[in-house]
Amino acid sequence: MDLSQGRSYLAIPGPSVIPDDVLRAMHRASPNIYEGELIDLTDTVLTDLRKVAGTRHNATIYLGNGHAVWEASLSNVLAPGDRVLVPATGAFGHGWSEMAVGLGAEIDVLDFGRRSPIDPDRVADALANDTDQTIKAVLAVHVDTSSSAKSDILALRQAIDAVGHPALLMVDCIASLGCDRFEMDAWGVDVMVAASQKGLMVPPGVGFVFFNDKAAAVRARMPRVSRYWDWQPRANPEAFPLLFCGTAPTHHLYGLRASLDMIMSEGLEHVLTRHKVLAQAIWAAVDAWGQGGPMELNIADPAFRSHAVTSLRLGAPHGTALRRWCQDKAGITLGIGLGMATDEDPASDGFFRFGHMGHVNAQMILGLLATVQTGLVALDIPHGSGGLEAASKVIAQASRDAS
Question: Which of 30, 196, 265, 377 sits most deeply, having the most CB atoms within 10 A of its CB?
Fold first, then answer.
Protein backbone atom coordinates (compact mmCIF):
# COMPACT_ATOMS: atom_id res chain seq x y z
CA MET A 1 0.00 0.00 0.00
CA ASP A 2 1.17 3.51 -0.86
CA LEU A 3 1.23 5.69 2.29
CA SER A 4 3.31 8.54 0.85
CA GLN A 5 0.53 11.12 0.70
CA GLY A 6 1.08 14.28 2.72
CA ARG A 7 4.09 16.53 2.98
CA SER A 8 7.19 14.82 1.58
CA TYR A 9 10.58 14.88 3.30
CA LEU A 10 13.73 15.35 1.22
CA ALA A 11 16.40 13.64 3.31
CA ILE A 12 19.18 13.96 0.75
CA PRO A 13 22.48 15.79 1.32
CA GLY A 14 21.37 18.93 -0.50
CA PRO A 15 19.24 20.66 -1.48
CA SER A 16 18.28 20.53 2.17
CA VAL A 17 14.93 21.19 3.78
CA ILE A 18 13.94 24.84 3.28
CA PRO A 19 12.46 26.48 6.40
CA ASP A 20 9.10 28.20 6.14
CA ASP A 21 10.75 31.46 7.27
CA VAL A 22 13.06 31.30 4.25
CA LEU A 23 10.21 30.49 1.88
CA ARG A 24 8.16 33.40 3.23
CA ALA A 25 11.12 35.78 2.95
CA MET A 26 11.60 34.85 -0.70
CA HIS A 27 7.91 35.06 -1.56
CA ARG A 28 7.81 38.75 -2.49
CA ALA A 29 7.82 41.09 -5.43
CA SER A 30 11.17 41.98 -7.00
CA PRO A 31 12.91 44.78 -5.10
CA ASN A 32 14.77 47.85 -6.33
CA ILE A 33 18.30 46.66 -7.18
CA TYR A 34 19.87 50.13 -7.27
CA GLU A 35 19.08 51.59 -3.86
CA GLY A 36 17.14 50.96 -0.69
CA GLU A 37 16.73 47.98 1.60
CA LEU A 38 18.37 45.35 -0.62
CA ILE A 39 21.72 47.15 -0.45
CA ASP A 40 21.60 47.40 3.35
CA LEU A 41 20.38 43.82 3.68
CA THR A 42 23.26 42.53 1.56
CA ASP A 43 25.80 44.19 3.84
CA THR A 44 24.34 42.31 6.81
CA VAL A 45 24.29 39.04 4.87
CA LEU A 46 28.01 39.34 4.09
CA THR A 47 28.77 40.20 7.72
CA ASP A 48 26.96 37.15 9.03
CA LEU A 49 28.39 34.84 6.37
CA ARG A 50 31.83 35.79 7.68
CA LYS A 51 30.72 34.85 11.19
CA VAL A 52 29.53 31.42 10.06
CA ALA A 53 32.78 30.88 8.13
CA GLY A 54 34.93 32.06 11.04
CA THR A 55 36.74 34.74 9.08
CA ARG A 56 37.35 38.46 9.18
CA HIS A 57 38.50 38.42 5.57
CA ASN A 58 36.78 38.76 2.21
CA ALA A 59 33.38 37.22 1.44
CA THR A 60 32.02 37.19 -2.11
CA ILE A 61 28.75 35.97 -3.60
CA TYR A 62 28.32 34.36 -7.02
CA LEU A 63 25.17 33.40 -8.86
CA GLY A 64 25.73 29.69 -9.38
CA ASN A 65 26.06 26.34 -7.64
CA GLY A 66 29.02 24.72 -5.92
CA HIS A 67 30.71 23.91 -9.23
CA ALA A 68 30.56 27.60 -10.09
CA VAL A 69 32.49 28.63 -7.00
CA TRP A 70 34.99 25.83 -7.60
CA GLU A 71 35.78 27.55 -10.89
CA ALA A 72 35.57 31.06 -9.41
CA SER A 73 38.10 30.24 -6.70
CA LEU A 74 40.54 28.57 -9.07
CA SER A 75 40.25 31.27 -11.72
CA ASN A 76 41.58 33.88 -9.29
CA VAL A 77 44.75 32.04 -8.28
CA LEU A 78 45.72 29.62 -11.08
CA ALA A 79 47.18 30.35 -14.48
CA PRO A 80 47.47 27.71 -17.21
CA GLY A 81 50.36 25.38 -16.43
CA ASP A 82 50.24 25.90 -12.66
CA ARG A 83 50.35 22.78 -10.49
CA VAL A 84 47.88 21.86 -7.78
CA LEU A 85 47.85 19.03 -5.27
CA VAL A 86 44.48 17.36 -4.72
CA PRO A 87 44.03 14.97 -1.78
CA ALA A 88 40.75 13.25 -2.73
CA THR A 89 38.39 11.38 -0.40
CA GLY A 90 35.47 10.85 -2.78
CA ALA A 91 33.79 12.10 -5.92
CA PHE A 92 33.93 15.79 -5.10
CA GLY A 93 37.68 15.95 -4.59
CA HIS A 94 38.06 14.48 -8.06
CA GLY A 95 35.44 16.90 -9.37
CA TRP A 96 37.34 19.94 -8.13
CA SER A 97 40.53 18.57 -9.67
CA GLU A 98 38.78 18.17 -13.02
CA MET A 99 37.70 21.80 -12.80
CA ALA A 100 41.37 22.76 -12.38
CA VAL A 101 42.30 20.67 -15.42
CA GLY A 102 39.68 22.54 -17.42
CA LEU A 103 41.45 25.79 -16.55
CA GLY A 104 44.79 24.44 -17.80
CA ALA A 105 46.30 23.44 -14.46
CA GLU A 106 48.44 20.36 -13.94
CA ILE A 107 47.13 18.19 -11.10
CA ASP A 108 48.75 15.75 -8.71
CA VAL A 109 46.05 13.62 -7.09
CA LEU A 110 46.53 11.80 -3.81
CA ASP A 111 43.61 9.38 -3.80
CA PHE A 112 42.63 8.26 -0.31
CA GLY A 113 39.79 6.12 -1.60
CA ARG A 114 36.19 6.46 -0.49
CA ARG A 115 36.42 5.29 3.12
CA SER A 116 39.22 7.41 4.56
CA PRO A 117 39.92 11.09 5.30
CA ILE A 118 42.93 13.01 4.06
CA ASP A 119 46.20 11.87 5.62
CA PRO A 120 48.09 15.12 6.37
CA ASP A 121 51.43 13.28 6.53
CA ARG A 122 51.10 12.08 2.93
CA VAL A 123 50.26 15.62 1.85
CA ALA A 124 53.33 16.90 3.72
CA ASP A 125 55.51 14.30 2.00
CA ALA A 126 54.20 15.34 -1.43
CA LEU A 127 54.91 18.98 -0.71
CA ALA A 128 58.35 18.24 0.72
CA ASN A 129 59.21 16.44 -2.52
CA ASP A 130 58.20 19.56 -4.44
CA THR A 131 61.62 21.08 -3.89
CA ASP A 132 61.09 23.79 -6.52
CA GLN A 133 57.78 24.69 -4.86
CA THR A 134 55.89 24.61 -8.13
CA ILE A 135 52.66 23.47 -6.46
CA LYS A 136 50.51 26.59 -6.15
CA ALA A 137 47.59 25.24 -4.14
CA VAL A 138 46.25 22.28 -2.16
CA LEU A 139 42.58 21.60 -2.91
CA ALA A 140 40.91 19.85 0.03
CA VAL A 141 37.26 18.94 0.50
CA HIS A 142 36.30 19.28 4.17
CA VAL A 143 33.33 16.90 3.88
CA ASP A 144 33.00 14.90 0.69
CA THR A 145 29.25 14.64 0.08
CA SER A 146 29.59 11.31 -1.70
CA SER A 147 31.64 9.34 0.83
CA SER A 148 30.72 11.47 3.91
CA ALA A 149 34.41 11.50 4.87
CA LYS A 150 35.38 14.51 6.99
CA SER A 151 39.03 15.57 6.99
CA ASP A 152 41.02 17.40 9.64
CA ILE A 153 41.71 20.75 8.01
CA LEU A 154 43.70 22.19 10.90
CA ALA A 155 46.02 19.17 10.83
CA LEU A 156 46.39 19.66 7.09
CA ARG A 157 47.37 23.31 7.62
CA GLN A 158 49.92 22.27 10.23
CA ALA A 159 51.37 19.67 7.88
CA ILE A 160 51.79 22.25 5.12
CA ASP A 161 53.45 24.67 7.51
CA ALA A 162 55.74 21.96 8.91
CA VAL A 163 57.44 21.54 5.53
CA GLY A 164 57.49 25.28 4.86
CA HIS A 165 55.60 25.11 1.58
CA PRO A 166 53.92 28.32 0.33
CA ALA A 167 50.98 26.63 -1.44
CA LEU A 168 47.55 28.08 -0.80
CA LEU A 169 45.24 25.91 1.27
CA MET A 170 41.88 25.94 -0.51
CA VAL A 171 38.95 24.16 1.13
CA ASP A 172 35.53 23.08 -0.14
CA CYS A 173 32.98 23.53 2.67
CA ILE A 174 29.92 23.16 0.46
CA ALA A 175 28.56 20.24 2.50
CA SER A 176 29.93 21.25 5.88
CA LEU A 177 29.39 24.98 6.39
CA GLY A 178 26.87 25.52 9.18
CA CYS A 179 26.83 21.80 10.06
CA ASP A 180 30.36 20.65 10.89
CA ARG A 181 32.76 22.88 12.78
CA PHE A 182 34.90 24.99 10.47
CA GLU A 183 37.05 27.99 11.42
CA MET A 184 38.67 29.56 8.40
CA ASP A 185 41.06 31.98 10.09
CA ALA A 186 41.90 29.85 13.14
CA TRP A 187 42.68 26.89 10.89
CA GLY A 188 44.80 28.90 8.45
CA VAL A 189 42.65 28.40 5.36
CA ASP A 190 43.45 30.78 2.51
CA VAL A 191 40.41 30.21 0.29
CA MET A 192 37.08 28.56 1.15
CA VAL A 193 34.07 27.86 -1.04
CA ALA A 194 30.49 27.14 0.03
CA ALA A 195 26.97 27.28 -1.35
CA SER A 196 23.45 28.16 -0.29
CA GLN A 197 21.61 24.85 -0.57
CA LYS A 198 22.92 22.78 2.33
CA GLY A 199 23.64 24.03 5.85
CA LEU A 200 22.48 27.53 4.90
CA MET A 201 18.99 26.19 4.06
CA VAL A 202 18.36 28.31 0.94
CA PRO A 203 17.50 26.95 -2.54
CA PRO A 204 20.41 26.28 -4.92
CA GLY A 205 21.54 29.25 -6.93
CA VAL A 206 24.21 31.18 -5.04
CA GLY A 207 27.70 30.23 -3.96
CA PHE A 208 30.37 31.91 -1.87
CA VAL A 209 34.12 32.37 -2.04
CA PHE A 210 35.98 33.53 1.06
CA PHE A 211 39.65 34.51 0.71
CA ASN A 212 42.37 36.03 2.87
CA ASP A 213 45.18 38.49 2.20
CA LYS A 214 47.62 35.78 1.05
CA ALA A 215 45.16 34.65 -1.62
CA ALA A 216 44.45 38.27 -2.57
CA ALA A 217 48.18 38.79 -3.17
CA VAL A 218 48.24 35.77 -5.49
CA ARG A 219 45.28 37.22 -7.38
CA ALA A 220 47.10 40.55 -7.74
CA ARG A 221 49.96 38.77 -9.55
CA MET A 222 47.68 36.98 -12.01
CA PRO A 223 48.18 38.09 -15.62
CA ARG A 224 44.43 38.02 -16.22
CA VAL A 225 41.22 36.77 -14.62
CA SER A 226 37.81 36.28 -16.23
CA ARG A 227 35.71 39.40 -15.72
CA TYR A 228 32.86 37.37 -14.29
CA TRP A 229 34.88 35.19 -11.91
CA ASP A 230 37.20 37.97 -10.72
CA TRP A 231 36.72 38.32 -6.98
CA GLN A 232 38.51 41.65 -6.67
CA PRO A 233 35.64 43.97 -7.73
CA ARG A 234 33.17 41.78 -5.84
CA ALA A 235 35.10 42.12 -2.59
CA ASN A 236 35.71 45.86 -3.04
CA PRO A 237 32.81 47.10 -5.16
CA GLU A 238 32.58 50.70 -6.26
CA ALA A 239 28.85 50.19 -6.81
CA PHE A 240 26.33 47.60 -5.60
CA PRO A 241 25.94 45.74 -8.95
CA LEU A 242 29.68 44.99 -8.95
CA LEU A 243 29.12 42.68 -5.98
CA PHE A 244 27.51 40.30 -8.46
CA CYS A 245 28.97 41.41 -11.80
CA GLY A 246 25.45 42.46 -12.75
CA THR A 247 21.99 41.86 -11.39
CA ALA A 248 21.82 40.74 -7.76
CA PRO A 249 20.30 37.35 -6.80
CA THR A 250 17.50 39.31 -5.17
CA HIS A 251 15.29 36.62 -3.68
CA HIS A 252 18.19 34.45 -2.61
CA LEU A 253 19.49 37.41 -0.61
CA TYR A 254 16.18 37.68 1.24
CA GLY A 255 16.26 33.94 1.84
CA LEU A 256 19.82 34.14 3.14
CA ARG A 257 18.88 36.93 5.50
CA ALA A 258 16.13 34.76 6.95
CA SER A 259 18.33 31.66 7.25
CA LEU A 260 21.17 33.59 8.84
CA ASP A 261 18.69 35.13 11.29
CA MET A 262 17.69 31.59 12.27
CA ILE A 263 21.32 30.54 12.74
CA MET A 264 22.19 33.63 14.76
CA SER A 265 19.07 33.30 16.90
CA GLU A 266 19.78 29.65 17.70
CA GLY A 267 23.48 30.36 18.14
CA LEU A 268 26.12 28.86 15.87
CA GLU A 269 27.51 26.71 18.68
CA HIS A 270 24.08 25.19 19.30
CA VAL A 271 23.57 24.65 15.57
CA LEU A 272 26.81 22.65 15.42
CA THR A 273 25.94 20.66 18.56
CA ARG A 274 22.45 19.88 17.23
CA HIS A 275 23.97 18.49 14.04
CA LYS A 276 26.44 16.43 16.06
CA VAL A 277 23.79 14.86 18.29
CA LEU A 278 21.44 14.04 15.41
CA ALA A 279 24.31 12.49 13.46
CA GLN A 280 25.27 10.37 16.45
CA ALA A 281 21.67 9.18 16.71
CA ILE A 282 21.80 8.04 13.09
CA TRP A 283 25.10 6.24 13.64
CA ALA A 284 23.72 4.46 16.71
CA ALA A 285 20.72 3.20 14.74
CA VAL A 286 22.88 1.99 11.86
CA ASP A 287 25.27 0.22 14.24
CA ALA A 288 22.31 -1.64 15.75
CA TRP A 289 20.86 -2.59 12.37
CA GLY A 290 24.27 -3.75 11.21
CA GLN A 291 24.53 -6.31 14.03
CA GLY A 292 22.12 -8.58 12.20
CA GLY A 293 22.53 -7.63 8.56
CA PRO A 294 24.69 -6.05 5.86
CA MET A 295 24.13 -2.36 6.66
CA GLU A 296 27.24 -0.43 7.69
CA LEU A 297 28.49 3.13 7.85
CA ASN A 298 30.88 3.98 5.03
CA ILE A 299 33.31 5.74 7.39
CA ALA A 300 34.35 3.48 10.27
CA ASP A 301 36.00 6.04 12.58
CA PRO A 302 33.44 8.44 14.14
CA ALA A 303 36.10 11.19 14.27
CA PHE A 304 36.07 11.34 10.48
CA ARG A 305 32.31 11.13 9.90
CA SER A 306 30.39 14.20 8.83
CA HIS A 307 27.62 15.67 10.96
CA ALA A 308 25.81 16.72 7.77
CA VAL A 309 25.69 13.60 5.59
CA THR A 310 26.06 9.87 6.19
CA SER A 311 26.99 7.45 3.41
CA LEU A 312 25.88 3.85 3.95
CA ARG A 313 26.61 0.44 2.51
CA LEU A 314 23.84 -2.13 2.26
CA GLY A 315 24.85 -4.31 -0.67
CA ALA A 316 23.22 -4.52 -4.09
CA PRO A 317 20.35 -4.34 -4.79
CA HIS A 318 19.24 -3.43 -1.28
CA GLY A 319 20.35 0.21 -1.30
CA THR A 320 18.29 1.20 -4.30
CA ALA A 321 15.37 -0.99 -3.22
CA LEU A 322 15.28 0.67 0.21
CA ARG A 323 15.48 4.17 -1.29
CA ARG A 324 12.60 3.47 -3.64
CA TRP A 325 10.45 1.93 -0.92
CA CYS A 326 10.99 4.93 1.38
CA GLN A 327 10.11 7.36 -1.40
CA ASP A 328 7.24 5.54 -3.04
CA LYS A 329 5.58 4.04 0.04
CA ALA A 330 6.40 6.52 2.81
CA GLY A 331 7.21 9.90 1.25
CA ILE A 332 10.88 10.22 2.30
CA THR A 333 13.57 10.64 -0.34
CA LEU A 334 17.03 9.32 0.56
CA GLY A 335 20.25 10.18 -1.26
CA ILE A 336 21.64 7.97 -4.01
CA GLY A 337 25.02 6.27 -3.69
CA LEU A 338 26.72 9.06 -5.61
CA GLY A 339 30.23 8.24 -6.80
CA MET A 340 30.23 4.86 -5.06
CA ALA A 341 30.10 2.52 -8.08
CA THR A 342 32.32 -0.55 -8.04
CA ASP A 343 33.11 -3.20 -10.64
CA GLU A 344 30.70 -5.54 -8.84
CA ASP A 345 28.06 -2.83 -8.41
CA PRO A 346 28.37 -0.42 -11.37
CA ALA A 347 24.98 1.21 -10.67
CA SER A 348 25.76 1.83 -6.97
CA ASP A 349 22.66 -0.16 -6.01
CA GLY A 350 24.26 -1.20 -2.75
CA PHE A 351 24.73 2.33 -1.44
CA PHE A 352 22.58 5.22 -0.23
CA ARG A 353 22.97 8.37 1.88
CA PHE A 354 21.17 10.27 4.61
CA GLY A 355 21.19 14.05 4.46
CA HIS A 356 20.84 15.55 7.94
CA MET A 357 21.88 19.13 7.38
CA GLY A 358 20.34 22.50 8.06
CA HIS A 359 16.70 22.65 9.11
CA VAL A 360 16.41 19.28 10.89
CA ASN A 361 15.36 18.36 14.42
CA ALA A 362 14.93 15.30 16.60
CA GLN A 363 11.46 14.32 15.41
CA MET A 364 12.50 14.56 11.77
CA ILE A 365 15.52 12.33 12.28
CA LEU A 366 13.55 9.84 14.40
CA GLY A 367 10.85 9.77 11.72
CA LEU A 368 13.51 9.17 9.08
CA LEU A 369 14.98 6.28 11.04
CA ALA A 370 11.57 4.77 11.77
CA THR A 371 10.76 4.85 8.08
CA VAL A 372 14.05 3.20 7.14
CA GLN A 373 13.54 0.49 9.77
CA THR A 374 10.04 -0.12 8.40
CA GLY A 375 11.48 -0.37 4.90
CA LEU A 376 14.00 -2.96 6.05
CA VAL A 377 11.14 -5.01 7.47
CA ALA A 378 8.91 -4.57 4.41
CA LEU A 379 11.69 -5.63 2.04
CA ASP A 380 12.90 -8.51 4.22
CA ILE A 381 16.40 -7.03 4.33
CA PRO A 382 18.30 -8.67 7.22
CA HIS A 383 19.02 -6.26 10.08
CA GLY A 384 19.60 -6.21 13.79
CA SER A 385 17.02 -5.03 16.29
CA GLY A 386 17.03 -1.94 18.46
CA GLY A 387 17.93 0.72 15.90
CA LEU A 388 15.28 3.20 16.97
CA GLU A 389 15.93 2.53 20.64
CA ALA A 390 19.64 3.21 20.17
CA ALA A 391 18.94 6.51 18.40
CA SER A 392 16.41 7.50 21.05
CA LYS A 393 18.96 6.93 23.82
CA VAL A 394 21.45 9.28 22.13
CA ILE A 395 18.87 12.05 21.84
CA ALA A 396 17.50 11.46 25.35
CA GLN A 397 20.99 11.58 26.85
CA ALA A 398 21.78 14.82 25.01
CA SER A 399 18.62 16.40 26.41
CA ARG A 400 19.54 15.31 29.94
CA ASP A 401 23.10 16.60 29.57
CA ALA A 402 21.80 20.02 28.51
CA SER A 403 19.35 20.38 31.40
Answer: 196
Verify that 229 and 282 share a domain, yes or no. Answer: no
pLDDT single digits (tens) 197-252: 999 999 999 999 999 999 999 999 999 999 999 999 999 999 999 999 999 999 99
219 and 333: one domain?
A: no
Residue 26: its H or E element: helix 20-26
Q: Mark whether 320 and 202 lie in a shared domain.
A: no
Do 229 and 274 lie in one domain? The reply is no
The DSSP secondary structure of 283-351, one letter per residue, reads HHHHHHHHTTSS-EES--SGGGB-SSEEEEE--TTHHHHHHHHIIIIISEEEEE-TT---SS-TT-TTE
State the chain's maximal CA–CA distance in angstroms: 66
- Phi, psi for residue 268 in degrees, rounded to 5: -60, -35
Q: Taking a C-beta distance cutoff of 8 angstroms, is the pair 303, 212 a contact?
A: no
Instruction: Mark whether 225 and 279 lie in a shared domain.
Output: no
Structural contact between residues 373 and 388, judged by C-beta atoms closer than 8 angstroms: yes
Q: What is the structure's pLDDT at 78?
A: 97
Cβ–Cβ contacts within 10 Å for residue 348, how many?
18
Q: How far apart are CA 217 and CA 236, in angstroms?
A: 14
User: Which residues form the domain of 250?
Assistant: 31-264
Give the integer Cα–Cα distance in Å for 27 and 29: 7
DSSP state of 56: S
Assign 61 to helix, strand or coil: strand
Indicate if the alpha-carbon torsion angle 390, 394, 400, 403 is positive or negative. negative
Question: Are residue 276 and residue 207 in the same domain, yes or no?
Answer: no
* Amino acid making up residue 169: L
End-to-end CA distance of the chain: 42
Rounded to the nearest 5°, which phi and psi values hold at 149?
-75, 135
Total domains, the chain? 2
